[in-house]
Amino acid sequence: MGLVASCGGGGATEAGGEGGASGEPIKIAVVPPTSGALAEFGTASREAWEYAAQEANDNGGILGRPVELVIKDTDATANTTLSAVREAVTQDGANFIGGIMTSTEHNAVNQQLEGLNALSFNSNGKDDALTGDSCKPNAYRVVQSNLMDINALADSLADLPGEKWAIQAVDYSTGHDAAAAFTTAAEAAGKEVVLEQFAPLNTTEFGSYITGLKNSGADALFAVEYGADGVAFVNQADQFDLTDQFDTVLGFNMVSEPLFETLGDRIVGFKNNVGYDVNADNESNQSFVEGFEAEYDEKPYYVHADNYLAAQTLFAGIEAAESAETEDVREALKDLSFDSIVGEVTVRSDDNQVLRPSNIGEVVEDGDGGLAFDILQTADASVTTPEASDACTM
């Protein structure tokens, strides 16, 4: 499954196939980070959109029109990302946007969407405000919100070992939101949070934070550290035997399949939210996993899957609208239900949140010398998803 043309450094990627798609292309801006702690996730976002575009084109396009990606680079800062989005829309003709990573970037971009006459599909940013007081009618969230994931964790928290919890989180909106929601859930489960610590993104030295955790008196840890930051934290925690004092280490997107080889058996027994179950037994998922693995020689993990789901959402909206015009697609997406790689999902029109299940998994040895997630529990969207916020006016 090859790409016909790829121009780096902010150029367009035309995903062409044998399906004979014709007519004006449907242009999608993909704006993932290419540097810093989130670069690996940025690569996964781009790969998923490229796969979805190529797959669509191999099957004749969407409404018979080819899908064309406009790839832009960013450093995951709001100003850089917003500039890249504006260029993709005003100069390159894209009117759909994907691949943006952080909630801060999404918030900045979402403010401009109506003026740009573009729709954005968020598959990475979990900040609850994005479907709360910062919601926008042209912004869709495909990934679970922090609160949806926390509610899934809360559903099992009472049964997890540990009474006194410490929180170690990244110092930006997602980390603070996750910490606040976890504290509420812990208290509801009869647990106590004895320490909260926040480390800036791109922290490489966690010594002082580890000292705080060791002295906290906690017997369980909730950790919200991502990418390279998560690797640094886990490695340094292991050096100081930190996790030995905890009955439970519960990560929030801290350990994921791409990091299993790097982190090794030191994370066996860690628990983590698992937004996407690669082994989910439905036809759409099985087809995705088989095709993606054949293309990239690896199974997809949650960043791949959530970005592919964003593409599925967009394509379902275009097909339901029988149009790729922004307003038509936006109208068609209202309360639209469709079959996806995570089962049937619905785009809730009250806040443009995609309603989908959430999982809790434990890192285990897979029997072949590697690691895998053992899914401990799956919570339906009806359990995890709060009512749409009154602060969200569409």
Structural class: alpha/beta
Question: Please, what is the oligomeric state?
Answer: single chain
The Cα radius of gyration reads 20 Å
Percent range of helical residues: 25-40%
On the 0-100 scale, what is the average pLDDT? Answer: 92
End-to-end Cα distance, whole Å, is: 39 Å
N-to-C series of helices and strands: EEEHEHEHHEEHEHEHEHEHEHHHEEEEEH
Most strands sheet: 7 strands, mixed
- Uncertain segments are 1-10
Q: Which outline best applies?
A: globular
* Lateral arrangement of strands in the main beta sheet: 1-2-4-3-5-6-7
Beta-strand fraction estimate: 15-25%
Number of helices: 13
Could you tell me the number of beta strands?
A: 17
3D structure, described in words:
With 394 residues, this protein is an alpha/beta fold. The chain has helices at 39-58, 78-90, 103-110, 113-116, 146-157, 173-188, 207-214, 227-239, 260-263, 283-296, 302-321, 326-332, 381-384, and strands at 5-6, 12-14, 26-30, 67-71, 96-98, 119-122, 139-141, 164-170, 192-199, 220-224, 248-251, 271-274, 337-340, 343-348, 353-355, 358-365, 371-379. Strands 1-2-4-3-5-6-7 form a seven-stranded mixed beta sheet, with helices on both faces.
Short synopsis of the structure:
This protein is α/β, with parallel strands linked by helices and 394 residues long. The protein has helices at 39-58, 78-90, 103-110, 113-116, 146-157, 173-188, 207-214, 227-239, 260-263, 283-296, 302-321, 326-332, 381-384; strands at residues 5-6, 12-14, 26-30, 67-71, 96-98, 119-122, 139-141, 164-170, 192-199, 220-224, 248-251, 271-274, 337-340, 343-348, 353-355, 358-365, 371-379.
